[in-house]
Amino acid sequence: MTVPSSLKACVAVGLFGWAALAMGHGNVTPQGVDTGNLPELGADPLSENPFRANSEHGDYHEEAVKVGESGYAGNCAVCHGIQAQSGGLTPDLRELEEWDDEYFIGRVMNGTDRGMPSFKSNLDQNAMWAIKTYVESVKE
Ligand code: HEC
Are 80 and 97 within 8 A, CB to CB? Predict the structure, then answer.
């Protein structure tokens, strides 16, 4: 017996819907980030943004801004505001300075018990630094 493809599509949607539900923390479902051609950074968190112009992987700055823009939109904008413009309920990430890098990565990895979720199991540090690079790019 052959299964009509419309039925297969139905089953696929059903499974996906369930997965989204199971992963959801409240109403926030972390979105995986395709880090494209960015260099592999390994598991140990760096203490400085490697994609900043003149940094170790500064050549990837533009690429990181692009990756970070979609990563930010899919994971952070819901709380920290469109284009990193906070409405005041959460910290405005544009106010972080370069010396806050270690603080930034620690917060994103581990979250806090006051409403900042941990992204350790959903984003690798490539995606996190790309997001930081994007936020720096929209800083006034
Ligand atoms: C569910 C809402 C929510 C989401 C989603 C979220 N955050 Fe947060 N974030 C918060 C809240 C609330 C705080 C303040 C927490 C506190 O004071 O302990 C915070 C704090 C932070 C801080 C510390 C800022 C400071 O000035 O102290 C950083 C960095 C941060 N978030 C980055 C991110 C990034 C990057 C993402 C996306 C990958 C993200 N957050 C997604 C709610 C969120």
Answer: no
pLDDT at 14 over 70: no
Is residue 135 within 6 Å of ligand 1 at its C-beta? no
State the distance from the centre of ligand 1 to the C-alpha of 28, rounded, in angstroms.
13
Tell me the C-alpha distance between 132 and 50, whole Å: 10
Q: Is residue 107 in contact with ligand 1, taking CB distance under 6 Å?
A: yes
User: All domains of the chain, ordered by start, with CATH?
Assistant: 41-137 (1.10.760.10)
What stretches of 43-100 show up as alpha helix (H) in DSSP? 61-75, 77-80
Supply the DSSP symbol for 39: P
12 alpha carbon to ligand 1 midpoint, in Å? 33
If you ran DSSP here, which 8-state letter would residue 10 be given?
Answer: H
Tokens of 20: 């989204």
Q: What is the pTM of this model?
A: 0.83
When pLDDT is cut at 50, 70 and 90, the band that residue 30 belongs to is confident
Distance (angstroms) between ligand 1 centre and the Cα of 42 equals 23
78 pLDDT tier (thresholds 50, 70, 90): very high
91 phi, psi to nearest 5 deg:
-60, 145
